[in-house]
Amino acid sequence: MAVLSLATMQPTSHLEDSMTDSGMPTTGQEMSLSPPTAIYDGPRLRMQGISKSFGAVRALNNVDFEVYAGEVVGLVGDNGAGKSTLIKAISGVGPCDEGEIFLEGQPVKITNPQIATRLGIETVYQDLALCDNLDVVSNLFLGREENTPFGTLNEMAMERRGLEVLHTLDVKLPSVRAIVSTLSGGQRQSIAVAKAILRKAKVVLLDEPTAALGVAQTRQVLQLIRRLREQGLAVVVISHNLADVFEVVDRVIVMRLGRRVATFDTASTTPEQVVAAITGAEFGTILQTDGANGNGAIEGNKL
User: Fold this and answer.
1) Helices marked H in the chain — which ranges?
2) How far is CA 35 from CA 66, 105, 241, in A?
3) Most buried residue among 8, 27, 79, 238 by CB atoms closer than 10 A?
4) In sequence order, what E strands does the chain have?
5) What is the CATH number of the domain that holds 106?
6) Strands 57-67, 45-54: parallel, antiparallel or unpaired by DSSP?
């Protein structure tokens, strides 16, 4: 039996101090998930017994899922495996029919995207949801603009905070006043992620972050994911590109036909084993986690 040793630290972003005086409500102010002095060493996000049906179709069947602080988890599977449905349950777009969700050990109910955002769960979709005709700063604060005491936009404060978060993520842009439509795919992806960080994200879900990107842009996005891990965030990457998955993730969770069928430690497995789990092919003994216990223990099982 192999045992995963995962970092379970709390986020250590040095942006915390610079953001508390902005007047924006923080997650801690909106909902106290645990006492400030408590040290929680379990998964930052844990889902247990998640099920979801669309009429007679069972999209998710008793799925367990967990991701720790300072960890990148890859969620993989064939089309129709249930990946998108699971992400929608986490983000509140498609709440689950059955099961429980725990954030930092406390039970939560996520019934819409607004609740997920208040809890610190941010999703960066493949289309990025950016406004091409606006500049970088306007996109970063879209819907959460800061005002001066006179009721006008506080452009200088927003630009300063935008520069801070972009610097933290080591994002290279020609200017924070550049129009988004003039930027590369990798730069646009970076802006979408920076927007999530500005919203005090604890868990970041990335849907196909390297799809349709060139080699240089893909490398930029993968480096961005590493930066998120260094900041202590819990990161979930949904991708069909196993080369990218193996480059940045710590664990790979495989979905097939609405079930979680296997979990792999990328340091001790091969892409061939993951492909076998995705397709259901017989590939000797694979590593499968009992997600219900959330302790990261990996057991040998047959598909």
Assistant:
1) 16-19, 27-30, 83-91, 113-119, 136-140, 155-168, 185-198, 215-230, 242-248, 271-279
2) 22, 11, 40
3) 238
4) 2-3, 45-54, 57-67, 71-76, 98-103, 106-108, 121-124, 203-207, 234-238, 251-256, 259-265, 286-289, 297-301
5) 3.40.50.300
6) antiparallel
Domains contained in the chain, number:
1
Contacts of 11 (CB under 8 A, 6+ apart): 69, 202, 231, 232, 233
Helix (H/G/I), strand (E/B), else coil: 74? strand
- In sequence order, the β-bridge partners of residue 76 are 254
Q: Is residue 78 a part of any domain in this protein?
A: yes
Q: Is the torsion defined by CA of 146, 152, 157, 161 positive or negative?
A: positive
Q: Is residue 19 part of a domain?
A: no
In a domain, 71, yes or no: yes
| Tokens (6 digits) for 280 | 């259901």
Q: What is the largest CA-CA distance in the chain?
A: 68
Q: What is the distance between the alpha carbons of residues 221 and 80, in angstroms, rounded to a whole number?
A: 26
Domain that holds residue 270: 39-130+202-301
Per-residue pLDDT of the chain (303 residues; tens, 9 = 90+): 344 443 433 444 443 444 444 444 443 444 433 444 457 789 999 999 999 999 999 999 999 999 999 999 999 999 999 999 999 999 999 999 999 999 999 999 999 999 999 999 999 988 778 999 999 999 999 988 999 999 899 999 999 999 999 998 888 899 999 999 999 888 998 999 999 888 889 999 999 998 878 888 889 899 999 999 999 999 999 998 999 999 999 999 999 999 999 999 999 999 999 999 999 875 444 444 444 444 444 443 433
